[in-house]
Amino acid sequence: MKVKMMIVAVLALASAGAWAAPDEAMGKAGCMACHAKDKKILGPAFKDIAARYKGQDVTARLMEKVRKGGSGSFGPVPMSPIGADKISDGDLKEAVEWILKS
Q1: Which residues contact 32 (CB under 8 A, 6 or more apart)?
Q2: What pTM was computed for the model?
Q3: I want to staple 42 with a disulfide (CB 3.0 to 4.6 A). Which of 29, 34, 56, 66 is the partner?
Q4: Residues contacting 5, CB < 8 A, separation 6+
Q5: 63 known ligand binder
Q6: Does Methyltransferase show up as a keyword for this record (predicted)?
Q7: 6 is in an annotated binding site
């Protein structure tokens, strides 16, 4: 499992340069280890998240989901909680809003 996670992380880091997120905070928080803009890695692609929540006011809800982690929304793979020590509330809000516009 560790090898698989390392491969995923390397691939995510390699693809991260292909598009610019609103801030480097997403990379520092570890988001890019499991997500990419337009393809599923371990977690859903940002474009798939945006499509699921299109037209809904879910920024606060998704911020809470990032903070608490969980599973079931996009499959059985759980998302680890991401604390304020990894990404500030302001940067997280900006990231979620950017994802929803993807």
Answers
A1: 12, 13, 16, 21, 26
A2: 0.76
A3: 34
A4: 33
A5: no
A6: no
A7: no
| CATH code for the domain defined by 2-100 | 1.10.760.10
Q: Domain ranges in the chain?
A: 2-100
Q: Extract the tokens encoding 1.
A: 């499992």
Phi, psi of 77 (to 5 degrees): -75, 120
pLDDT value of position 18: 41
31 is an annotated ligand-binding site residue:
yes
CA distance to 1, 28, 77, 102, per residue, from 98 (Å): 31, 16, 23, 6
Predicted confidence (pLDDT) at residue 73 exceeds the cutoff of 50: yes
Instruction: Look up residue 51 and give its two tokens.
Output: 């499509």
